[in-house]
Amino acid sequence: MFLSGLIKDFSHRKTPNDVVEVHPSNTETAAEMETLQHLPSPSSPLTVKTMGEFVHHVDAVMERTHHGGGWLLSGIICINILILGCALVSSSAFNSVAITAVHRQIFLIILLLLTMLWMLFYTIITSRKNQAVLFKDSHAGPVWLQAGLVLFGLLSFLMDIFKIVNYVGYLHCDSVVKVAFPVVQAVFLFVQTYFLWIHAKDCVQLHTNFTRCGLTLTLSTNLLVWMAAVTEESVHHTEIYDLNMNISYNYGDKKCKCSHSACDTFEEAFYYLYPFNIEYSLFASAMAYIMWKNVGRIVEDHSHHKAKFCPKEVRLGPVMGILLVVAGIATLILYEVQILKEDREKRNAALLIHFIMNIVIASLMCLSTVIGCIVYRLDHREHVSEKNPTRSLDVGLLVGASMGQFLISYFTIVAVVVTGARGYLNALNLAWAVLTVLQLGLQNYFIIEGLHREPFHVIREAALHTNACALQEHTEIDVVVDSNRPNYFLTLCPDKPSWKRRVLKEVCAFLLFANVILWIMPAFGARPQFDHSVEIFFYKYTMWTAIVNIGLPFGIFYRMHSIASLFEVYLIS
Amino acid sequence: MFLSGLIKDFSHRKTPNDVVEVHPSNTETAAEMETLQHLPSPSSPLTVKTMGEFVHHVDAVMERTHHGGGWLLSGIICINILILGCALVSSSAFNSVAITAVHRQIFLIILLLLTMLWMLFYTIITSRKNQAVLFKDSHAGPVWLQAGLVLFGLLSFLMDIFKIVNYVGYLHCDSVVKVAFPVVQAVFLFVQTYFLWIHAKDCVQLHTNFTRCGLTLTLSTNLLVWMAAVTEESVHHTEIYDLNMNISYNYGDKKCKCSHSACDTFEEAFYYLYPFNIEYSLFASAMAYIMWKNVGRIVEDHSHHKAKFCPKEVRLGPVMGILLVVAGIATLILYEVQILKEDREKRNAALLIHFIMNIVIASLMCLSTVIGCIVYRLDHREHVSEKNPTRSLDVGLLVGASMGQFLISYFTIVAVVVTGARGYLNALNLAWAVLTVLQLGLQNYFIIEGLHREPFHVIREAALHTNACALQEHTEIDVVVDSNRPNYFLTLCPDKPSWKRRVLKEVCAFLLFANVILWIMPAFGARPQFDHSVEIFFYKYTMWTAIVNIGLPFGIFYRMHSIASLFEVYLIS
């Protein structure tokens, strides 16, 4: 009954709230229920002192909440669904006689239906009781994640439509499940996108145990859809390769003919849309995971230190960046046109241009990141000391997503080095892979270090607050810390911009645009990994397809995440 | 300069400590150096109030330290070594022409030498400066981990000796690297076991950045040795299977004959010892990871609330448990003898006994865990609210290790269900797998919930302290929380043992022994996964070997970890 400590602090405030469940394992205890009636409503003004104590207590509650029964139960459910699904998916890939795509799809349909049921239940509950969601995490479900979800959701929907039309043509000789699955998935796409759009920022306080389990169900469903799509795509790639571009089997019985003429077109079309579905599942998984972490969390409704975005502050970085994007798009179009030609010479020329362009981009990025890191050393600032679970999660997702590109690059390096890297194309491919590894490491360092530095506007606001604008060295920041909570006494004139901050902002802006073009290229179909044959020969087709299909979506996710993070670093600097 | 806050609290204490580095990114700042001179020596007595503030500050420092440059850099190094190694190991498995075992071993030798160099450097530095390790984490490197490390280290050493003797016989026609690798590995085993034995509990404060990088190097080296061993073992299994028990190739050139007669014996012997080497690498990885987490950490030297171990308290649980262990060992011996017979009938009988024994064990464990969980509900206690990184890590390792057994069980379930589970052996196999999944889930819940409950002896001590021994319901615990720090006023007579606590202790003791027998069986060679053929046919030999070789060592690790955790839960209850 730790929560009863809250009574002492807040017994003088009686906000007319209903009873809210916060601590999942002790919900029945009447005493605790009572204490929560005394919780301050998030918007009510509190003295700094009381707020500090409040946050302290809340932290303790959070810690306990995280280890409650629901946390554990939902984790166990997630592990079980995932490993069972993993067994099904991989056995359908390795032993397609005993477990067919139909078995796998029935399993996925059940999961999709269960998840939708839970989402409907959740939406109804939270819309009825206005105490269900007292707190919102403003960091969760950022704009780029939501926009990406809708974009990839629409393209996945298109894929499902194509699939339905295609498989309807096989209905007379193939299982009805093949049509049912895309139908259910299409409905699921709408329900889930709506659900995540509305509820991504929720810190649920009601039915926390049940909500946790529902969210891990959502998480594991999305991960399994992702896993199934990756496997299907790899198998399909291998089949095309094996049959030398002779599509139209994959339907168990090769004698099964499509009953309408548009089949082939639709089938080719929906396979092009697979990567977007893979990406959609990753986005949805990330958002479900963030929501799961936020269940039962009580966040301070801190009046965000909004940093203003002044695009005039920088010039060189954005200009260089936009030039790079334009050049990148030009070479991408050239590449896409030339790579489809029959002529081997022209295809090599396309690869040459693509490789050189990527090497130039990666080198420039490495260079500017190094400059940025040096400026970090010079422009020494405090690290933010307060805890921020969303930021830790953000950093975790960033580093995790970068693994995908790391994986592809290292496999390329090994393949090219071992085979001797003969010919200029192999040498360029190697250089690109090495530079990418370097660039990823540097950029991760730059972003994470940047996110953890004390934001400039916070220091500035503190300075304005204390009116302590003395004239020392114009960039020296001297912070004196009170024993209780940090107050910043700043010796910096707020209207004098420092060159270090300008350089950092230029670097951020440049890296942001560079990541945009590195996102555009793979997202819009550039696949040099399959157009250049070294890795395919070295690792065999199936394995290399699996590596690329796992690594590339993470790589695309990483670029989008980097863009958002770099924008944040830009604002902080 | 948040640390300067420490000055205020502790400026009255001037312990003659040297300058110690705590915060990695600001090490050069003289002001911070100074503050650390005022850190209290860990053993010095402090008032509770001051201690509370101290811990508060330390937490903030920790948070920052964790996100320092060294943390990031060491993470990036770890990722790079791991993914590069992963590419090398998997390409040596999938493309044994271009990348041979020799390439892989050269890479591993370099890593082993670098790791040893760092370990020597670390040992010398810390032995010279007595300020290098100010704090020790008493939870890190527990006895079972250290004992396991030494045990598996010795068996791995034996494996290396056998390898050396074996490969010396091929020296005239095979690479010298094949002999060099086990030699280096044998030296490494000694250096690393010594290093981890001495330093596992260190919370390093000196050269934190460098130490972090060294530890991630150790971590990734061990993980790669593990990965290489798993791959080699899987390839070897597949080769034996393919060649129908005709050993003596695997040395590139099949014409290469061993120059001494004992080769075949030694080769067979060292392949039997592979699982122990795999286990050793896992243990070392876990310990290196814990050390890495502890770098720069400042731990309270809290006078451990030592719970006494009174074996007389319980009777039924240990008796049942020991009976189970004896019965298990008897059936194991029977199994090992019978399974080697040529007669198919006898082999099936051996499998039958083994399956039934395991089903009985798993059922009894499930039953007792359910009883334990019900008692948790009845004997309601507070969750521990203070933060404990080692405990979180412990829980993470436990859940992570349980994945191995989950993986094997679910793959078995899918294979048996899909093939129809004909025959009593398949039915028993299925029942065993389902019960194992259930047992793992329940046991994880039981242990984690148990570890997070407020220890009984803490409540008891608080009760003795406040001398508040009133007579209410003899098991009702009523805790009142002060607004600053929790003080427990207990309404329980310390000399009156509650039946709930007795039941919990009985359950813990029984589960402990049951885990012992479940550890003994796979650790001493029972491999029904390979003696029973359903999964091999279903998944093909290579894939199934890989699954078992990855899953089983984690399963063994899990059992040992469970034993240690259950002992802790026993003491707490």
UniProtKB/TrEMBL annotation, chains A, B:
Localization, UniProt: Cell membrane
Domain of life according to the entry: Eukaryota
UniProt GO cellular component terms: plasma membrane
Pfam families linked to this entry: Otopetrin
Protein's membrane topology: Multi-pass membrane protein
Membrane spanning residue stretches: 71-94, 106-127, 139-159, 179-198, 269-292, 313-335, 355-376, 397-418, 430-448, 507-526, 538-558
Alphabetical list of InterPro entries matching this protein: Otopetrin
Record family assignment: Belongs to the otopetrin family.
Protein name: Otopetrin 2
Organism from which the protein derives: Amphiprion percula (Orange clownfish)
